[in-house]
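Protein modeling request. Please complete all fields; requests missing the sequence field cannot be processed.
Requester role: graduate student
Desired output: 3D structure, token encoding
Chains: 1
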Amino acid sequence: MSYKVISKKLIIIVPIMFFIIAIVRISLNYYENKKSVELFVSEQSKLVDSLYMTHRNYYQDLYLNKIIPLDEKTLAGLPAFSAAKISKEFSEQNRLQITMQTVSDRARNPKNQADEYELKAIEYFKKNSDAKEYISKENKFYQYATPLKIEKKCLKCHGEKSKAPKFISQKYDKAYDYKIGDIRGILSIKVPTFHVDNIINRQFLGSVLYDLGLMIVISLIAFYLVRFFSKLQAKLETELDERTHELKNSLSFLESYKDAIDSNLIVSKTDLNGNITYVNDNFCKITGYSREDVIGENHNILRDKSFSKAMYTKLWSTIVSRETWQGRIRNVKKDGSTYWVDATITPIINAKGDITEYISIRHDITQLIYQKNELKTFANTDSLTKLGNRNALKEEIDYGENIFLILVNIDSFSQINDFYGHELGDAILVEFSSKLLQSCSLYEELRLFRVSGDEFAILTIDMPAHTVVQKAQSIAKFINAHVYEVKDETVELNATISISLEEKDQLLITADMALKIARRDAKDLLVYDKAMNLDKEYENNMLWTKKIKEAIKNDKIVLFFQPIVDNATGEINKYESLIRLIDSDDKVITPYFFLEIAKKAKLYKQLTKIVIQKSFENFRENDFEFSVNISIDDILDKEINAYILEMLNIYNISHRVIFEIVESESIENFDEIQRFIKSVKELGCRVAIDDFGTGYSNFEYLMRLEADFIKIDGSIIKEILDNKNSEIITTVIVDFAKKMGIQVIAEFVESEEIFQKVKELGIEKSQGYYFSEPKPFLI
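Delivered output (779 residues):
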């Protein structure tokens, strides 16, 4: 039976049920009201009886105690004589018109003679000596009575006639010879039925009306509820149909997704022991194995034995603890060749919470890894001399142990460029680097790099300090002893050399400082000493620390904004927020001069908060997207991390915020960084990687970071017209970004030619002085 049919029947049945219930209630009320009438009459009569008897006894005591003398004059004050008058006035003054009177079957006062109904009551009490009350419904009233029995005090007037007061015995001939306990009469109370019935009927009618009203209200409610639930049922049926349709669509989509995954990703499943239970077609295509080869075999069949055992241990400890593992693995194909995959391995858990199997979804990233290696080569190789460049030197220093540094700077090389031209100058540099490499190649402990135009670096490995100085002296002599013949020109070169024997994190800075001092003082070779220029450095640091503190105090830390242009439309829809310091002379100071000192002075955290708050405030009431630079240290700092989330919640503009991560090549704690990125992305923010392309590490890290934008480093973009390697690196980055679904921004776009070039290479957005220098306001 359908819900609609049930609803129609309920609309009829429910009111009938309530009507029957109402009739039963009315009938019960009727009979209860009838019973309550006698109770009501009895209660009212008892109240009157109590009042009257109290009054009667009080006046009797007044006479008996001779407070009022009993004589012919005062006889009218006795209750037997005063009752009639009192009853008449009482009846007129109460709304029920109740009458009361003491009456007797042997009344001396004719007004107190019992009527036929009262005589019935007297006869009842004479037959029932223990009865205390009498009630009877007559035609027009209820007769209520209580007995008046002879007491000792009554015998004075109602005992022997000879003993009664003379004025009584002479006046009355009857009502004598009573004994104690005899019925003298009754207190008769008559309650008219008309008034009582009116009260009771009104109550009954009210009850009837209440029940009828309640029945009507409940019927209406029932009718409304039936209609409401009928509509609700219809709505639910509609929603069920829609959900069923959606479910069918979802199943269809899932099938499509499965097909897409099977055709693009490598999928396999294993049991709890790591034995393969399923592989898709793409697995077989990539690995060269057939299903028959691998089903039932342990997944170690794909393992590259040279890969880290610790990583596999961590992988298993992760998935057996019901967590998903993600990472890059190098696997082995059937033919023995290797391939790289970006893998996600997830435990499948049943309703009881037990792991039943593991599913692995892998994406073949072999091409990306090769591109990464290729990019590393491009990024770490000087395009002119083919030596390692500054990036390569930094990497060697980062990973090296027991190392020292020699810097070699060709004296006055700019004059050679000016006199002979850059083409010949480049040829001389190639010849010079070849001779210098030849000299260094004699020693396994030496590594040669070109770190800038006319500057070379030699890194020594496991070489004692005194030997390093000797080698530097030998190199100086070698340079001075050679004549360089290039394109029919003969050129002699001299060089200034500096040496740093400091800790590896200070090698470049100290070697560069020693080189500047050597050139200033016209020395051929100088070994860095800690006393060099430290006093001035300390003085400079203290001066800038004071300036930074004053700027913070006086709100002189301000923001400048540089637009980011959409290459397709030419429109500005993004800005980068850039910190500036306004000094006491109102000069605008760039962060190059104060940011590192702020870090040393522990003021950097305050500057970060100021930049975040002012950026959010400046873009609060417009529609522009904007980026804020944050460092890895900012992300790892719990206080800054919490402040960022607090500001995002306060300003509610997360969908327009881009966090631009600088110094990304120094990431070590990936878990913390990924947690931060996930938390801000859940609020709607996006992430950009700054200075991309200056080192291979950030290219590698990008595969693990969920970046939305890549900003190609300005040093690459500036040379993109003249340096083929810069163009190749940019092409690789753009190709990589498109595959990863990441937008690319070119920095340092300073001319129309560069702008046209980056557009030609497929870069989506540009930023640089060609469009606008950073300004304290939005364009």
